[in-house]
Amino acid sequence: MKYLSYLKLELLSNLQYRSAALAGIATQFFWGALLVCVYTAFYSHTSIDSINYDQLITYVWLNQAFFALIYIRNKDKDIFASIRTGTVAYELCRPYDLYIWWYVKLLSKKYAATLLRFLPIIVVALFLPKPYNLSLPISLLAFILFLISMFLGSLVVCAINLIAHFLTFFTMHDKGIFSILNSIAELLAGFDLPIPLLPTILIMVSEYLPFRLIGDLPFRIYSGNIDTLYALKSIGLQIIWIIVLLIIGHLIMKKALKKVVIQGG
Amino acid sequence: MIRKYLSIHLKVALEYKVSFILTILAQTLSMFLEIFAVEALFYKFSLLDIYNINQLILSYSVVWLGFSLSEMFSRGFDNFANLIINGNFDLLLIRPRNIFLQIFGSDICYEKLGRVIFASYLVISSFIKVVESISILKIILLILMILSSFILFTSVFILCAAFCFKTVQGLEVINIFTNGTRTLAQYPMDIYNKVIRIIFTIVIPITFINYYPIQYLNNTTNNLLYLLCPLAIIVFLLISVIVFKSGIKHYYSTGS
User: Fold this and answer.
1) Which residues contact B224 (CB under 8 A, 6 or more apart)?
2) Cβ distance A61 to A134 under 8 Å?
3) pTM of the prediction?
4) Poorest-confidence range of B1-15, B118-132, B195-209?
5) CB A104 within 8 A of CB A3
6) Are residues A72 and A160 in contact, defined by beta-carbon separation less than 8 angstroms?
7) Which end of chain B, N or C, is more open, meaning fewer C-beta atoms within 10 Å of its C-beta?
8) Residue in chain B nearest A26 by alpha carbon
9) Who has greater pLDDT, B115 or A19?
10) Where do the H-state alpha helices sit in chain B?
């Protein structure tokens, strides 16, 4: 398959950025420690029923370890540049589906970044002193479901990410719009606060949107915050959302490309 | 000269009006969401009976106001790595003007204006509710708090900039220092355990810009010594300036 070999090619070239990954690991690790401090402070006063302390700390470390995978704000310079400079004209001539091509490109970048980062954070977090550490998965089944939903989550986030890229083509002022859209998405994805800690209304809103399926769902499956039945249902929901988002993205891209006027040369 | 710097950067920003306004909106939104997260946590853990909501707002909005002012006016230090990488720092060094003033002037980020206005609004409205009776001393203290918060974050920026002399490239890791300080400082100091509280009093003197002064504002104490708290930040500023100066002494250009 040509798309698979493209995935492999991009993956290999993106695996070169090792020093950037080192900085990323340090950042993620310190940030995790900082969040653990804050949440520990809150749980020392009271506890809440929607998520317990151990589950939340596990959530924090998984979130940091897989940050590169679930990151929504990813901005691909090449895609923006190909539209602005007009090289998209060449891309359109080539014998492949441009949508899938770009989708694979985003995906491979994510996988490479994650592969370089997640292991050190996981290992260190596992061996931290007792209450501050990453717990082991609640059961083998939960772990398998976690892996499946994490993989599907990466498909969801890339589909959303690509739509965000296309939406900025219409406006041309990419910085502002892109950032506003992403801020809202991040809130409903549980980036600012894990979903169980959000106010009840926002939890309800997030149920109807795909954003929580990116990272929040797998992390909560892992720690047993979500039971098996609900986890299975949510994984089904992930698959439906991936199909819907891919179709929407495809339609928007067609519309966006119609607007593109290729300027001579 | 300062006025000239201000007007030039404003003209640059207004060159792309729609983009400028959208960026302001986006910046303000992201700040709003972070504040929202703080409030949501207090609400979720039903700690609002223990913590006075207005004091909470005052304490994080002073942090945010100081932080946004630093982001706006001390941008040159925030992005110091760029100055070094593209060699423009050498240009500043040969000019017969104060080096700090020139770095301040190298970039002024008007995109943070929305944050500054929003944070100012929060500071003033919560200040009025926290103090039952407004006195001149309390207003002076508030101004001192804002100023010291600004100085504190600028000092952190200067310290981080001093690192760039060693590393040449800008390190993502350094952002933890600035953003991490801001994030931790958003919460009232007494929710943390002793260790963190001591760090925030001695290493990075955050408690002096909101925690202690607020004790005076809400009449918990009448000790006039609390009025002087924000001045402790000056020591922190002096240290960071000394570190930066010694960095310049050992500076070799990246050449070209």
Assistant:
1) none
2) yes
3) 0.83
4) B1-15
5) yes
6) yes
7) C
8) B173
9) B115
10) 2-14, 17-44, 53-73, 75-78, 80-85, 88-94, 99-106, 113-130, 136-167, 174-175, 181-185, 194-198, 211-217, 233-249
Pick the closest to residue A118 from A71, A63, A171 (CA basis). A63
> Which one-letter amino acid corresponds to residue A144?
I
Helix (H, G, I), strand (E, B) or coil at A263: coil
Residue with tokens 């729609």: B18
Q: CA dist B215 to A79, A82, B141, Å? A: 53, 57, 11
Mean pLDDT of A82-91: 72
- What distance in Å separates the CA atoms of residue A241 and residue A155, rounded to the nearest whole number? 10
CA distance A168 to A197: 31
Q: What are phi and psi of B58, to 5 degrees?
A: -60, -40
State the residue for tokens 């060159």.
Answer: B15
Tokens 């490479």 -> residue: A112
Residue B193 Cα distances to A34, A134, A135, B5, angstroms: 13, 21, 23, 44
**Would you state the structure tokens that stand for residue A46, as one six-digit string?**
């009271």
* Best B49, B50, B109, B173 residue to mutate vs chain A (most A CBs within 10 Å): B173
- Predicted local distance difference test score (pLDDT) of residue B255: 56
| Partner residue facing A27 (CB), from B36, B41, B172 | B172
Kindly provide the ipTM of the predicted complex, given to two decimals.
Answer: 0.78
A38 touches B at CB < 8 Å: yes
Q: What is the pLDDT of residue A15?
A: 76
